[in-house]
Amino acid sequence: MASNQSYNVKFFSGEEVPLELHKVRIVQKLNLIPIEERLKAIVEGGFNTFLLTTKTVFLDMLTDSGTNAMSDNQVASMLRADDAYAGSQSYMRLEEAIQQVFNCKYFLPAHQGRAAENIISRVFIKPGDVVPMNYHFTTTKAHIELNGGTVLEIYTDEALKVKSKHPFKGNMDIAKLEQIIKKYGASKVAFIRLEASTNLIGGQPFSIANMRAVRKVAKKHAIMVVLDASLIGENAYFIKQRETEFKNKSIKQILHEMIGLVDLTYFSSRKVSSTRGGGICTNNKEIHNKMKDLVPLFEGFYTYGGMSIREVEAMAIGLVETLDETVISQSPKFIRYMVNELERLGVPVVTPAGGLGVHIDAGQFLAHVPQAEYPAGALAAAFFLISGVRGMERGTISSVRDANGNDVLADIELLRLAMPRRVFTLSQVKYAIDRLCWLYKNRKLVGGLKFYEEPPVLRFFGGKLKPTSPWPQKLVAKFRADFGDSL
Question: Where are the domains of the chain?
Fold first, then answer.
């Protein structure tokens, strides 16, 4: 199809419905257990949705990382894997895909995105360095700080507005970037990091115009620009939809334009290509060589990087499929549908709809719960309890404590409901909407949480909490009164 081909399908009824441009050929049975069993499960899991087992989960909207549905071509490719420790032909095919999709000469494989972050941070960050970025991701921040660096978030004023019509809330504030360089000096700026479709503030994209402005500043001060491309497909889709200059450009052309504006790109293929694994790519041989020797030390040999060769094959196909607009638009269209419905029904939700998932404004949803009692975590637990839908807390639980042991309160409290590619049906999305609406009308029943087991690093993964009052039991009772014997 031509690059300006429209993939929108209009219904005669006028209803805006996301139409799946794929068919389902393999299915997995799901479990929707009674609310009393869900209560037992969330108690045992310390009111942390990460600690639930899939036996108790109906719709798993925790993340899109490693949960996207692979295509038939990806699955088929795994059967031709060349299982060699070194010099695998499967890896050669992956390199060809990297060149086609990212237009990069040099590639280093890693077992996932955070492994790439480990290598980048070890090589380029020195104690006392700063890393300005449009917003942090949890593992990114941890790796930078472990190597003595400091994350400086320089998002625009629009970024944290829950209700907005700004098309690119993931943009970096250029004036703030200049101020940081002036304050710390260019030599103390390890690199400038851009995250495609900012994970923690609603999956919001940045524009190519903003990238060009960042690049101009970076070039002026001889500072490296690093791109986290884990959700680059969705960001490219939004650029095509929202940035006039690129309306008639192909996704491949947009991707090449984006990659050409940075010095180094890394990604988690658990997101971008619907497989396991990750990698780092660049067109700068000097940058590549600085990192190269850490791959066999931390990941494995250069031609597999800690990944199964079968995953290497599937990654190559998945990356090329990222060039297909019908593939990368599926999740954003489902997300837009759910966001529009929730907004119509009065549920506080981040707008405009972004990539990755639907983000509920837990701070407004549970305005009566103090931020120190983790409203986003409480909402995630409550929503699982009344629906069996597992979402992820993206608020203060996902933050850290300061030197005095006090919570560093999050900029925004969100419940993220991820929308993995080609996984959920429209009826399942409607079910999630229905249960959210019921919970919103009964929101005063939900209380706060407090830690009783708290890991020192990335506490949101393994920490355990308990309710500050018997609110879960009250919520169960109200559910039974309203829904009877319904699951």
Answer: 35-64+327-483, 72-323
CA distance 224 to 230: 19
* Catalytically annotated residues: 85, 137-138, 228, 271, 394, 460
Q: What is the pLDDT of residues 233-272, one digit of tens each?
A: 999 999 999 999 999 999 999 999 999 999 999 999 999 9
- Per-residue confidence at 16, pLDDT binned at 50, 70, 90? confident
Q: So what CATH class is 72-323? A: alpha beta
Residues 149-158 have a mean pLDDT of 95
Q: Identify the pLDDT of residue 3.
A: 52
Pairing of strands 59-60, 389-390: parallel
Cβ proximity of 50 and 382 under 8 Å: no
Among candidates 84, 265, 276, which has minimal Cα distance to 92? Answer: 84
Q: Where are the beta strands (DSSP E) in 165-251?
A: 192-195, 225-228
Q: At what angle do helices 375-387 and 471-483 cross, to 10 degrees?
A: 40
Three-state SS string across 130-152, please? EEEECCCCHHHHHHHHHCCCEEE
Q: How far apart are CA 337 and CA 19, in angstroms?
A: 11
Q: What average pLDDT does this structure show over 295-300?
A: 96
3-state secondary structure of 350: coil
Does the structure show a pLDDT above 60 at 4? no
What does the pLDDT read at residue 188?
Answer: 98
User: Which residue reads 């087991």 in tokens?
Assistant: 453
Contact 398, 410 (CB under 8 A): yes
Helix axes 251-259, 89-102, angle to 10 degrees: 90
Q: Whole-structure pTM over 0.90, yes or no? A: yes
Q: Which CATH number fits domain 35-64+327-483: 3.50.50.60, 3.40.228.10, 3.90.226.10, 3.90.1150.10?
A: 3.90.1150.10
Q: Is 266 helix (H, G, I), strand (E, B) or coil?
A: strand
Tokens of 390: 């597992």
Q: Mean pLDDT over residues 366-389, rounded?
A: 98
